[in-house]
Amino acid sequence: MLLLFFLGIGLIFACVGALFGLWISALVSVLKNPVVKQENKIPWFLVVFFVNPIGPIIFFFMHGFKKRAWWTLILTIVPIILWFVAIGGALSFGLNNADKYGVKIENSATINYLETARAEFDTSDAENLTTDSEKSFMVEDGNASAVIAGETLALRDFVRSKIFFALVGLGAVSIAGILALWITGLVKVLTDKKIIDSGTKILWFLLIFFVNPIGAIVYFFKFGYKKLAWTTLAFAVLPIIVLILYAVTAVFMAI
After folding, report:
1. Is the separation of the CB atoms in 171 and 241 below 8 Å?
2. How far is residue 205's CA from residue 189's CA, in Å, rounded to a whole number?
3. Average pLDDT over residues 81-109
4. Radius of gyration of the chain from its Cα atoms, rounded to whole angstroms
5. If you average pLDDT over residues 190-218, what whole number do you get?
6. Segment 225-235, tens digit of pLDDT
């Protein structure tokens, strides 16, 4: 059983390596193959690069590389099947051999060990307790400091929560804007009279659908929708700024 498990893992790595080779082959074909129109090379390259293995499969099928398309599809499915088989086999092996290897929580020796460890921990913890007189002295001596520290922490937590909710709001606005512009790009591609060829329409649709927001930005700039392009770019950059601001705020508040 163990031999079959490692054999399955080896086959998975072999399939992944072959898929990587086919991915490189697709990228080279996009750039050098004369079948691909010059104006479609950049969008096809982006689709193949970012949407692997779906991008290469679609590219191979649409440009007549059917053998490579089928090989890519098979090599995509096989590792998934092998992975589930390997996991299922490992679980089955573990369950069937639990008694053999003594993996039972009901084992009395294990229970006794846990109880002994817990008792030792409780004893050592009790020895370290501060006496009542020491506690009283500490409270009286540091009363003013404790009040100041408590107020400072409360103020810090209040400011941090307000900044956090403000940044979350900005992030939500950014995501909503990107989603709206993504849908706008998909609709425009299907209705755009500047794109006559149906194959080109499908290509740009795939690019925007799978490689958002990069696909939408490239499409808007390519076909003259500059306001939409800059707006999409701004909404795409905003979450990064939000994350940086939150990280800086968290570090500053922790000091």
Report:
1. no
2. 6
3. 62
4. 30
5. 87
6. 999 999 999 88
Determine the Cα–Cα distance for residues 223 and 157; give it in Å rounded to an integer. Answer: 48
Domain boundary among 74, 96, 118: 96
Q: What predicted TM-score, i.e. pTM, was given to this entire model?
A: 0.58
Q: At what angle do helices 143-191 and 198-210 cross, to 10 degrees?
A: 170
What pLDDT band is residue 105 in, cutting at 50, 70 and 90? Answer: very low
Whole-angstrom Cα distance, residue 236 to residue 218? 13
The number of folded domains in the chain is: 2
Distances (CA, A) of 187 to 96, 126, 178, 192, 205: 55, 70, 14, 8, 9
Q: 121 in a domain, yes or no?
A: no
Looking at the predicted structure, is the pLDDT value of residue 29 above 80?
yes
| Cβ proximity of 206 and 58 under 8 Å | yes
The range of the structural domain enclosing residue 233 comes to 159-255
Secondary structure (DSSP) of 181-220:
HHHHHHHHHHH-TT---HHHHHHHHHHHHHSTTHHHHHHH
For residues 42 and 45, give the distance between their C-alpha atoms in angstroms, rounded to a whole number. Answer: 5
**Cβ atoms of 174 and 242 closer than 8 Å:** yes
- Is there a cis peptide before residue 213, judged by omega within 30 degrees of 0? yes
Distance CA 81, CA 77 (A): 6
Residue 137, domain member (yes or no)? no
* Stronger pLDDT, 93 or 28, i.e. the higher one: 28
